[in-house]
Amino acid sequence: MAIVKVNWSGGKDSTCASLLHILRGDKAKLVCYIPMFTKEIPLITKKHYEFITNTAEYFRTLGADVYIVSGMTYYDFVSHKRTRGKDKGKAMGFPLYIEKMCSFKNYSKISAIKKCDVGFYDYEDVGIAFDEPNRQGQLNDFKRSILVEEQYTELMAKQKCVEYNILSPHYENDTRDGCALCPHAPIKRREQWFIDYPEAIPLVIELQNLVKRECPERVPLRNKQWFL
Hints:
Structural class: alpha/beta
Helix content: 25-40%
Largest sheet: 5 strands, parallel
Strand order of the largest sheet: 3-2-1-4-5
Strand content: 5-15%
CATH architecture: 3-Layer(aba) Sandwich
Number of strands: 5
Shape: globular
């Protein structure tokens, strides 16, 4: 039996990886980061948020330790004042949307996961599927993937989640999970998020006006459309 820290997002691959470790008899320590718009409003759809909290309880009944973490909120990130450079004193603004370089992720997710103390573990599972060879270069003795080791493809991971009734309803209308305000996210996800959390609408408008005022050369949204 191994003691494994699993980065669990609530997506099909990491959910399947979590389940496989539990079924194999490993001691699973699941760390689930939930992006937050404010301290009260999740930055994911209500269905996906409720799925994560309910599935966390299910995994706990199976003997897993589950840690739900969140870092700097999206609202605080955008309005955070820069501390150096030519824009010192101005708002941080909307995140830089380049693949693998989301600044909100660096400030919030990575920091929150690093601060989460789960105690001793033998290695970390990062939930990479067998048919994702472009991501497997990051794997080593201490950062592994049971999906790769057991040759589970993304489709197989999804089917396993369906078998155990732990597939997020998020997949009914979307192919991946993630922040609702990411410009790369489907418009339908953002629309659903506004329906789920109408109290976020005036706050998003406030942030847009802040960025327009303080960072006019960087708008709209790094050459993307405005949220509203």
